[in-house]
Amino acid sequence: MQLEAEAGKWFEAVGIVILSLVCCGPLGLVLLWTSKKFTQKTKLIVTGVIVGLILVGGIAGIASGGSSSSSGSSSTPKVTTETTAKGNSSTTAGSATPAALCKDTADATTFDSKKQGLYAARVGVTKDDHEAALGDCVRVAGESGYVNSVKVINETYGSDQGILVNVTVRNRDKKQNDYGMFDWKIQTPAGIIDSATFFVGDTKPDLSSGKLVTGGEVTGNVVFDYAGPGTYYIIWEPDVFNDGTGIWGVVLP
User: Fold this and answer.
1) Same domain, 26 and 151
2) How many domains does the chain have?
3) CATH number of the domain that residue 165 is part of
4) Are 193 and 151 in contact (CB under 8 A)?
5) pLDDT tens for residues 186-216?
6) Residue 40: in which H helix or E strand, if any?
7) Where is this region: Disordered (predicted)?
Protein backbone atom coordinates (compact mmCIF):
# COMPACT_ATOMS: atom_id res chain seq x y z
CA MET A 1 0.00 0.00 0.00
CA GLN A 2 2.80 2.40 0.86
CA LEU A 3 4.48 1.62 -2.47
CA GLU A 4 1.24 2.32 -4.34
CA ALA A 5 0.77 5.61 -2.47
CA GLU A 6 4.30 6.71 -3.30
CA ALA A 7 3.82 5.73 -6.95
CA GLY A 8 0.58 7.72 -7.07
CA LYS A 9 2.27 10.78 -5.63
CA TRP A 10 5.13 10.38 -8.11
CA PHE A 11 2.79 10.22 -11.12
CA GLU A 12 0.78 13.15 -9.78
CA ALA A 13 3.94 15.21 -9.37
CA VAL A 14 5.21 14.23 -12.82
CA GLY A 15 1.83 15.12 -14.33
CA ILE A 16 1.95 18.56 -12.69
CA VAL A 17 5.48 19.14 -14.00
CA ILE A 18 4.55 18.04 -17.55
CA LEU A 19 1.50 20.34 -17.45
CA SER A 20 3.72 23.21 -16.30
CA LEU A 21 6.15 22.42 -19.11
CA VAL A 22 3.36 22.55 -21.68
CA CYS A 23 1.98 25.81 -20.30
CA CYS A 24 5.21 27.55 -19.31
CA GLY A 25 7.73 26.12 -21.78
CA PRO A 26 11.38 26.60 -20.67
CA LEU A 27 10.24 27.86 -17.24
CA GLY A 28 8.73 24.45 -16.54
CA LEU A 29 12.06 22.74 -17.19
CA VAL A 30 13.77 25.16 -14.80
CA LEU A 31 11.20 24.33 -12.09
CA LEU A 32 11.71 20.62 -12.72
CA TRP A 33 15.48 20.70 -12.31
CA THR A 34 15.43 23.01 -9.26
CA SER A 35 12.85 20.88 -7.46
CA LYS A 36 14.13 18.47 -4.81
CA LYS A 37 11.06 16.23 -5.03
CA PHE A 38 12.40 14.35 -8.08
CA THR A 39 15.43 12.18 -8.52
CA GLN A 40 18.02 12.77 -11.24
CA LYS A 41 16.61 9.82 -13.20
CA THR A 42 13.08 11.24 -13.11
CA LYS A 43 14.28 14.64 -14.29
CA LEU A 44 16.13 13.05 -17.22
CA ILE A 45 13.14 10.91 -18.23
CA VAL A 46 10.69 13.84 -18.15
CA THR A 47 13.12 16.09 -20.04
CA GLY A 48 13.67 13.38 -22.66
CA VAL A 49 9.91 12.95 -23.15
CA ILE A 50 9.40 16.70 -23.62
CA VAL A 51 12.31 17.02 -26.05
CA GLY A 52 11.04 13.99 -27.99
CA LEU A 53 7.55 15.49 -28.27
CA ILE A 54 9.03 18.76 -29.52
CA LEU A 55 11.13 16.98 -32.14
CA VAL A 56 8.21 14.84 -33.34
CA GLY A 57 5.98 17.91 -33.63
CA GLY A 58 8.61 19.81 -35.60
CA ILE A 59 9.19 16.95 -38.04
CA ALA A 60 5.45 16.50 -38.56
CA GLY A 61 5.04 20.23 -39.24
CA ILE A 62 7.81 20.24 -41.85
CA ALA A 63 6.37 17.17 -43.57
CA SER A 64 2.84 18.60 -43.71
CA GLY A 65 4.15 21.92 -45.02
CA GLY A 66 6.09 20.22 -47.82
CA SER A 67 3.15 18.07 -48.87
CA SER A 68 0.75 21.01 -48.90
CA SER A 69 3.10 23.09 -51.03
CA SER A 70 3.63 20.25 -53.51
CA SER A 71 -0.10 19.58 -53.74
CA GLY A 72 -0.72 23.27 -54.20
CA SER A 73 1.73 23.46 -57.07
CA SER A 74 0.24 20.42 -58.77
CA SER A 75 -3.28 21.83 -58.58
CA THR A 76 -2.33 25.18 -60.08
CA PRO A 77 -3.71 25.20 -63.64
CA LYS A 78 -1.28 25.77 -66.49
CA VAL A 79 -1.76 29.09 -68.19
CA THR A 80 -1.65 28.86 -71.94
CA THR A 81 -1.76 31.55 -74.37
CA GLU A 82 -3.37 31.31 -77.74
CA THR A 83 -2.38 33.73 -80.60
CA THR A 84 -5.27 35.15 -82.64
CA ALA A 85 -5.28 37.71 -85.38
CA LYS A 86 -6.66 41.09 -84.39
CA GLY A 87 -9.77 42.41 -86.05
CA ASN A 88 -13.12 44.06 -85.36
CA SER A 89 -15.97 45.76 -87.18
CA SER A 90 -15.04 49.37 -86.58
CA THR A 91 -11.26 49.62 -86.78
CA THR A 92 -8.63 48.24 -89.10
CA ALA A 93 -7.08 45.07 -87.75
CA GLY A 94 -3.41 45.69 -88.27
CA SER A 95 -1.49 48.24 -90.25
CA ALA A 96 2.19 47.73 -90.89
CA THR A 97 4.76 48.67 -93.47
CA PRO A 98 4.97 45.45 -95.53
CA ALA A 99 8.67 45.69 -96.41
CA ALA A 100 9.59 46.09 -92.74
CA LEU A 101 7.95 42.83 -91.70
CA CYS A 102 8.52 40.56 -94.66
CA LYS A 103 12.26 40.90 -95.37
CA ASP A 104 11.06 41.21 -98.93
CA THR A 105 14.18 40.82 -101.07
CA ALA A 106 14.71 39.47 -104.54
CA ASP A 107 16.68 36.53 -103.13
CA ALA A 108 14.01 34.01 -102.13
CA THR A 109 16.51 31.99 -100.08
CA THR A 110 16.92 34.74 -97.47
CA PHE A 111 13.42 34.39 -96.05
CA ASP A 112 10.91 31.56 -95.89
CA SER A 113 7.34 32.62 -95.16
CA LYS A 114 6.05 29.06 -94.91
CA LYS A 115 4.87 28.82 -91.32
CA GLN A 116 2.79 25.92 -90.00
CA GLY A 117 0.66 25.53 -86.88
CA LEU A 118 -0.56 29.11 -86.51
CA TYR A 119 -4.10 28.08 -87.49
CA ALA A 120 -4.09 24.39 -86.58
CA ALA A 121 -7.85 24.49 -85.87
CA ARG A 122 -8.72 25.57 -89.42
CA VAL A 123 -10.74 23.04 -91.37
CA GLY A 124 -8.86 22.17 -94.55
CA VAL A 125 -5.27 22.75 -93.38
CA THR A 126 -2.67 21.47 -95.87
CA LYS A 127 1.11 21.11 -95.87
CA ASP A 128 1.33 23.83 -98.53
CA ASP A 129 -0.21 26.54 -96.33
CA HIS A 130 1.85 29.67 -95.69
CA GLU A 131 0.26 30.98 -92.48
CA ALA A 132 0.73 34.58 -91.36
CA ALA A 133 -0.76 37.15 -89.00
CA LEU A 134 -2.42 40.32 -90.24
CA GLY A 135 0.19 42.76 -91.49
CA ASP A 136 2.75 40.05 -92.15
CA CYS A 137 3.58 38.62 -95.55
CA VAL A 138 3.45 35.38 -97.47
CA ARG A 139 5.79 34.61 -100.37
CA VAL A 140 4.33 32.37 -103.07
CA ALA A 141 5.17 31.87 -106.77
CA GLY A 142 7.58 34.80 -107.00
CA GLU A 143 5.18 37.24 -105.36
CA SER A 144 4.69 38.62 -101.86
CA GLY A 145 1.18 39.03 -100.50
CA TYR A 146 0.01 40.99 -97.46
CA VAL A 147 -3.30 41.33 -95.65
CA ASN A 148 -3.01 44.80 -94.14
CA SER A 149 -6.42 45.13 -92.48
CA VAL A 150 -9.87 43.55 -92.22
CA LYS A 151 -13.15 45.14 -91.18
CA VAL A 152 -16.92 44.75 -91.54
CA ILE A 153 -18.66 47.44 -93.62
CA ASN A 154 -22.30 48.32 -94.30
CA GLU A 155 -23.99 48.46 -97.69
CA THR A 156 -24.79 51.99 -98.88
CA TYR A 157 -28.36 51.21 -99.99
CA GLY A 158 -29.61 48.34 -97.90
CA SER A 159 -28.91 46.32 -94.78
CA ASP A 160 -26.31 43.88 -96.11
CA GLN A 161 -22.82 43.77 -94.66
CA GLY A 162 -19.52 42.90 -96.24
CA ILE A 163 -15.96 42.16 -95.19
CA LEU A 164 -13.47 44.69 -96.54
CA VAL A 165 -9.96 43.27 -96.84
CA ASN A 166 -7.06 45.57 -97.71
CA VAL A 167 -4.25 43.68 -99.46
CA THR A 168 -0.89 44.35 -101.07
CA VAL A 169 0.82 42.32 -103.80
CA ARG A 170 4.48 42.80 -104.76
CA ASN A 171 6.28 41.06 -107.64
CA ARG A 172 9.70 39.66 -106.69
CA ASP A 173 10.10 37.64 -109.85
CA LYS A 174 12.33 38.46 -112.84
CA LYS A 175 9.32 38.18 -115.12
CA GLN A 176 5.94 39.86 -115.12
CA ASN A 177 3.26 38.33 -112.90
CA ASP A 178 -0.51 38.65 -112.97
CA TYR A 179 -2.58 39.88 -110.05
CA GLY A 180 -6.33 40.24 -109.49
CA MET A 181 -9.17 40.25 -106.98
CA PHE A 182 -10.08 36.66 -107.78
CA ASP A 183 -6.71 35.45 -106.49
CA TRP A 184 -8.22 36.15 -103.07
CA LYS A 185 -10.86 34.06 -101.29
CA ILE A 186 -12.30 33.80 -97.79
CA GLN A 187 -13.18 30.83 -95.60
CA THR A 188 -16.23 31.44 -93.40
CA PRO A 189 -16.75 30.13 -89.84
CA ALA A 190 -18.92 27.40 -91.37
CA GLY A 191 -16.05 26.19 -93.56
CA ILE A 192 -17.39 27.65 -96.84
CA ILE A 193 -14.82 29.16 -99.22
CA ASP A 194 -16.22 32.21 -101.02
CA SER A 195 -14.79 34.29 -103.85
CA ALA A 196 -14.67 38.07 -103.84
CA THR A 197 -17.95 39.84 -104.52
CA PHE A 198 -19.11 43.20 -105.84
CA PHE A 199 -20.46 45.43 -103.10
CA VAL A 200 -22.33 48.73 -103.16
CA GLY A 201 -20.51 50.77 -100.55
CA ASP A 202 -17.32 52.60 -99.68
CA THR A 203 -14.78 50.08 -100.98
CA LYS A 204 -12.24 52.39 -102.67
CA PRO A 205 -9.58 51.73 -103.78
CA ASP A 206 -10.72 48.42 -105.25
CA LEU A 207 -8.12 45.86 -106.24
CA SER A 208 -8.37 45.57 -110.01
CA SER A 209 -6.49 43.11 -112.22
CA GLY A 210 -3.38 43.43 -114.35
CA LYS A 211 0.33 42.65 -114.45
CA LEU A 212 3.26 43.65 -112.26
CA VAL A 213 6.81 44.08 -113.54
CA THR A 214 9.78 43.11 -111.39
CA GLY A 215 9.57 45.16 -108.18
CA GLY A 216 6.06 46.38 -109.03
CA GLU A 217 3.50 46.69 -106.23
CA VAL A 218 -0.25 47.24 -105.95
CA THR A 219 -2.53 47.82 -102.95
CA GLY A 220 -6.32 47.65 -102.97
CA ASN A 221 -9.49 46.39 -101.30
CA VAL A 222 -11.29 43.10 -101.86
CA VAL A 223 -14.83 42.58 -100.51
CA PHE A 224 -16.49 39.35 -99.39
CA ASP A 225 -19.96 38.52 -98.07
CA TYR A 226 -20.28 38.72 -94.28
CA ALA A 227 -21.59 35.46 -92.78
CA GLY A 228 -21.90 36.46 -89.13
CA PRO A 229 -19.46 36.54 -86.22
CA GLY A 230 -16.65 34.03 -85.96
CA THR A 231 -13.20 33.14 -87.24
CA TYR A 232 -12.49 33.83 -90.90
CA TYR A 233 -9.45 32.95 -93.00
CA ILE A 234 -8.24 35.08 -95.90
CA ILE A 235 -6.85 32.83 -98.65
CA TRP A 236 -4.43 33.90 -101.40
CA GLU A 237 -3.67 31.71 -104.43
CA PRO A 238 -1.73 33.80 -106.97
CA ASP A 239 -0.79 30.89 -109.25
CA VAL A 240 -3.05 27.95 -110.11
CA PHE A 241 0.03 25.90 -111.04
CA ASN A 242 1.67 26.48 -107.65
CA ASP A 243 0.38 24.67 -104.56
CA GLY A 244 1.53 27.40 -102.19
CA THR A 245 -1.36 29.17 -100.46
CA GLY A 246 -1.35 32.21 -98.19
CA ILE A 247 -3.55 32.01 -95.08
CA TRP A 248 -4.39 34.87 -92.67
CA GLY A 249 -6.79 34.35 -89.75
CA VAL A 250 -9.06 36.98 -88.23
CA VAL A 251 -11.88 36.95 -85.67
CA LEU A 252 -14.84 39.19 -86.55
CA PRO A 253 -17.74 40.07 -84.22
Assistant:
1) no
2) 2
3) 2.60.40.1240
4) no
5) 999 999 999 999 888 888 999 999 999 999 9
6) helix 40-75
7) 64-96
